[in-house]
Design a protein that fits this description.
The structure is a single chain. The chain is of the alpha+beta class and 483 residues long. The chain is built from 16 helices and 14 strands. 47% of the residues lie in helices and 18% in strands. One of its GO terms (molecular function) is DNA binding. It comes from Fervidicola ferrireducens.
Length: 483
Amino acid sequence: MITIQASLSFDSNEDKQEVLDIMRRWSSCTRFAYNRLLEGKSRNELKRELQEIFSLNSRYVDDAIMKAKSVLESCKERGENPGKVIFGGRSLFEKLKKQHINGNAYKKLQHEWQERRKGNLYSRGDKSKKGNLNTRIEIDEYGTRLRINVGERKYAYARIQAGWKKGKSREELLEAISTCGQPYSVELKLKNGKVYAYFTIEENFPEVAITKESGIVGIDINAYPDHIAWSETDENGNLASYGRVPMPELTSGNSNKREYYRWRYAHEVVRLAEEKKKAIAIERLDIREKGKRGDFSGRKSRRIRHSFSYRSLLEKIKVLAKRKGIQVIEVNPAYTSVIGMLKYAPQYMISKDVAAAYVIARRGLGLKEQIPEGYMAILKELDADELEELKEHVKRTVKNKQLKKRQLKEIDEAIKLIQSLGSEPGRGPRPLDGTSLGTCGSGHNLWRVLKVAVVTPLSPERVLRDVSVLKGVLHSGQVGRPG
């Protein structure tokens, strides 16, 4: 989808007032429809009733019902109570309830909340009408303008002040949209007394020409330090090349500046894949606890991820890749950093982030990771008593409370898993399927145990930075134990 934002300048104050009136009625219609949907009424039952109550045509009413239904479904998907939805914004509503806000500050908040609650209008595009019947873009000798249906065969007109977007006139883009004959949706919003329009048209992507058959570029995005790590594989999953794209601009600056740089870095990633003629593998976007993979967890990681706009950057990579006909594969991100650090970082002497990108690329090819023989030897000899000793060592030596708490939790989880598998000498767990995580009994979480058994003894007081120390462990199967 392509969305273009523009402000509207009305030919007359009368036209503006008529548009504000229909925005108010449409917003009320949406709220009314939402409450009736909660009561179990259907679209067909509501349609004629809403037309009579709010004096809106059938298209506007259909769009209001659709919006109300989308809010209801979204609320249910998030597991929230649909009966507690507040149109206009809960945060603003809660501020208005506070007793200490009064005078001009209260009036300002109240005005903003009323605009959000009542200043909305949405009109879907219609292919049979070659665009949009209720809110149509028109072109004359003075430029582009928006014709808004405000009643039975009655229209209000507003000039579209679109500005510029990525070196191209937004007005030129709107002219192209208005003449292409494709349906486009228009949404009007009232902000600080001014009406803004959002034009959205569905983008037609070319057929996929670059696929994983020739290999993959795996992408690992890191909030700290802020960079993109990438690894290129051939069609068999062998490491071909790797690198990093620094992104210092994403940790500061206003939202517009960060948005610009997100697009810029996404272009760099896609250009890299296009030059190498390789598909792109990224982490699946539904990950919940990205803070647990890497150096940070908890509140600090949440703050970093919020400003870092991880999801937004991946979405831009997906869109740009589709425009270039490049296949994008989303993989399960679980344990990519752990596997990369333990297996591939010491093997190829690359950074943990590049190694994680390599694991992502291999998962994109459908390859499964096996635990190396050296590490298997450690797991075979490991027992719960040994982990209990490690736990006591961490309690004595680690001063950082947050790090100590995390390490003790990891050790406790490892002890439970070892006990569930049985700790008799010679009993070897099954090889790990690196692309699917199962229950403890299946042996699919042994990378977590391996991390505790190998990394924690080597670096109990800090996060392991130098992965070269793992190279000897990888080949010998021997790791230093705490005294």
